[in-house]
Design a protein that fits this description.
Length: 754
């Protein structure tokens, strides 16, 4: 019997049965994989059908927007805090005027296609590759990309918001496809040209022609057409008048458009050679770019974009209704105070004034300059002024926090020398005019801004505590000149007017620091924007501490360097400050419900303010205090009178109630009083008293004035050779000499401060 190879067939019935079962199992496995594949395929087809049905339903329910539904509002409007009175408009308010495509030159039409959609007449309204690429980027990164055809852009203009979300992109595609089916290409292009935003408040080609070239669209040249086609990609980037650097970008964009026209055969190379960048007229001024309101509008724009997330183009497109925190009576009082007190000569004096609500942060008034169209530097938010003796309040807060009473007494002779570790020469500090003070408490030292006493206090608590307090009250860590040197109490640091106003507002609100803001609410006509500001606060100082510090600051206005502010008819507290050589001067003060801050300098901030008006030198107690007083009286008219919290007496020595047993003890106690000290000082005290109680101003330079970027190097923070000399401030008397660097020695000039 012939047999196959050994082991090729089962020898028993059992083996045969097992072999059959194995084959069935293998066959079953093969069949199961086929079933899985068929099932997946079926599900895929079903899914596509579902998606297709969903798209069909969505498509059928999508309406084609009409051109007159696009950008129905020409201006975004800013309102005062009442929500009704107009403050400014962002755009020029040009009336949108539609023109038929027949009145738009062919080269204008082709320039727009070269700039935005060169396959316009061939595509189906949607760029599959562009949209797919944008979708992939949106799914694989945090960014959102465009990829729109002209038809898609036309659709996008139906939405007030230019949000790059997937939902918006989906709707855009559906509408674009439907429009492409229902309208001719010429109709789409005509509608697009009549609704696209060109910048300068201009919607549509006719309005843009007027805004940029003062002519009808029918008269546009090839060069003018190429520019207008290019500017639509980003008016804030390509309008040469909008910001520095735009001219170069606009020229590059212009070359791109002209080159595209050549590539597509719409312009010959020879014709392109003769096309030159056109001359563009200046934009018409708007209320958002002129006057004092221009500074407010610019800050509002920055807050909308950076803090709230509103797109730049949505601000320019219009339709936004923005309610600011600016209170009209406060703003009018600010303008009137500056114009009423500031001398006409020299004509380059600069003032920054801002008012904030303690505990809330709302900015109720802002004077950043006389005319934004003439100078764009905002003296409230951009200029950095060395703070001078305003910093003494930070030292006082730190001292009270450390248990030192505002009734603590210090001697205030002038000059005084302080040993600085690592320095060969002692650090010499002078009071203004070398005024001599006997034993006086910190309230009196604050009123008259006694330099030698405050440097002693800073030495006792440690100058790093002054820095800690300044930062706790909101000064940025990178504030120019902010350091831990002993001299920091005299204010070489250079914050902005707004930053110092916010810091003092925290004192007025009993230790609650509030983030300053200008925008109360934002609404859009189609509901895309519906924003209400949430107040952001933080408790940074104990209320017992601020009560005692505030009480000390009231003496500045009632008897010290701030008396020239005049009587407000209500409790008020404040502090003056002046930089070295009188290059900047401040007054910063508050009532319980409002803080006002005034900073002043001349030119670029490097000029000493001397022999101006009735004063031989400008200090914080001169024009700044006068402006502050006028402003506060005007702004607070009609507002209720509020009281400060009573002084708590942190760190006060509690006197024993045991009756004195001897007459000698009583005499000894009397000897320790300030009155006794005054008597023993005799001539020195008398001279000092005369110096500190005459007029109403106080010289107090301690630091350099503001500049746009950083304070002048000559008055910057302490160098390695030693800390800067003290600012001398502390008199009510108009300064007549002894200021500037008179109190300094060697490399340490002595600023005057108040």
């Amino acid at each position: 019997m012939a047999h196959g190879p050994q082991g090729s067939a089962p020898r028993t019935r059992a083996e045969h049965r097992n072999a059959l079962r194995s084959k069935r199992r293998r066959k079953g496995r093969r069949l199961s994989w086929k079933k899985v594949l068929l099932t997946l395929l079926g599900l895929g087809v079903a899914g596509l059908l579902v998606v297709g049905v969903a798209l069909a339903i969505a498509y059928s329910r999508t309406d084609v927007p009409q051109p007159n539904e696009f950008a129905t509002s020409e201006s975004s409007i800013l309102y005062y805090a009442d929500g009704e009175t107009e403050l400014a408009r962002f755009t020029g308010g040009h009336d949108r005027e539609s023109v038929p495509l027949s009145e738009v030159p062919d080269h204008m039409q082709k320039a727009m296609l070269a700039a935005e959609d060169r396959s316009f007449y061939e595509n189906q309204g949607v760029s599959i590759t562009g949209t797919g690429r944008a979708l992939w980027r949106n799914l694989t990164s945090d960014s959102t990309q465009g990829g729109s055809t002209i038809t898609q852009q036309y659709v996008k203009n139906y939405f007030l918001s230019h949000d790059q979300t997937l939902t918006r992109k989906f709707n855009e595609v559906l509408i674009a496809v439907k429009i492409d089916r229902e309208l001719s290409k010429d109709e789409i292009l005509e509608n697009y040209l009549n609704t696209i935003y060109f910048g300068r408040g201009a919607y549509g080609i006719q309005t843009a022609s007027r805004a940029y070239f003062d002519k009808d669209a029918s008269e546009l040249t090839v060069a003018e057409s190429a520019f207008l086609a290019g500017v639509t990609n980003g008016p804030s980037l390509f309008d040469p008048a909008f910001q520095e650097g735009n001219q170069e970008r606009a020229e590059q964009r212009f070359e791109y458009v002209v080159g595209g026209m050549v590539q597509e055969g719409w312009l010959t190379a020879a014709e392109a050679e003769s096309v030159r960048f056109p001359e563009i007229q200046d934009p018409e001024p708007t209320t958002a770019s002129t006057g004092t309101q221009g500074y407010i509008a610019t800050q509002v724009r920055n807050e909308l974009v950076r803090e709230i997330g509103v797109a730049e183009e949505d601000i320019d497109r219009g339709g936004l209704r923005i309610v600011t925190t600016i209170e009209q009576p406060h703003q009018e009082a600010a303008v009137a105070a500056v114009e009423g007190q500031l001398p006409e000569e020299p004509d380059d004096l600069k003032v920054g004034l801002v008012a904030t609500r303690p505990g809330d942060g709302a900015i109720t008034a802002m004077y950043g300059g006389a005319d934004y169209s003439q100078e764009q530097l905002n003296t409230v938010t951009d200029a950095h002024l060395q703070a001078g003796s305003l910093f003494k309040i930070f030292t006082l807060i730190a001292a009270v926090q450390d248990g030192i009473s505002t009734e603590s007494e210090f001697a205030g002779p002038s000059p005084m020398e302080f040993t600085i570790e690592g320095e060969d020469e002692p650090y010499e500090v002078n009071n203004f005019r070398d005024a001599q003070f006997g034993m006086v408490d910190l309230r009196t030292a604050t009123a008259h801004s006694v330099n030698t006493i405050y440097v002693q206090l800073n030495e006792e608590i440690g100058p790093e505590r002054t820095v800690e307090t300044a930062r706790a009250l909101g000064l940025p860590e990178d504030t120019p000149g902010l350091d831990s040197e002993l001299s920091n109490v005299l204010g070489p640091a250079a914050p902005t007017v707004l930053e110092m106003s916010s810091a003092y507002s925290a004192i007025a609100s009993q230790g609650v620091l509030a983030e300053p803001y200008l925008v109360q609410s934002v609404m859009s006509q189609n509901g895309v924007y519906d924003y209400e500001h949430n107040v952001v606060t933080k408790e940074v100082v104990d209320s017992d501490v601020t009560a005692d510090v505030t009480e000390a600051m009231t003496h500045v206005i009632t008897e010290g360097s701030g008396t020239s502010a005049g009587d407000l008819g209500r409790p008020a507290a404040g502090k003056s400050g002046t930089s070295e050589d009188n290059k900047s001067a401040w007054f910063n003060g508050f009532v319980p419900q409002l803080t006002g801050t005034v900073g002043m300098y001349q030119g670029d901030g490097t000029v000493s303010m001397r022999d101006i008006g009735e004063f031989d030198q400008i200090t914080g107690g001169t024009y700044p205090a006068q402006i502050w007083g006028d402003f506060m009286r005007g702004a607070l008219e009609g507002e209720p009178i509020e009281e400060f919290p009573e002084r708590v007496g942190v760190g006060d020595v509690v006197e024993e109630t045991v009756e004195p047993t001897t007459e000698e003890t009583t005499t000894t106690e009397e000897t320790t009083t300030t009155e006794e000290t005054t008597t023993t000082e005799e001539t020195t005290t008398t001279e000092e008293t005369a110096t500190t109680t005459e007029p109403t101003t106080e010289p107090e330079p301690t630091t350099d004035p503001p500049t746009e970027t950083a304070p002048p190097t000559e008055t910057g923070p302490p160098t390695e050779t030693g800390p800067p000399g003290p600012p001398d401030d502390g008199d009510d008397e108009p300064p007549g000499g002894g200021g500037g660097g008179d109190g300094g020695t060697g490399d340490h000039p002595a600023p005057d401060s108040g």
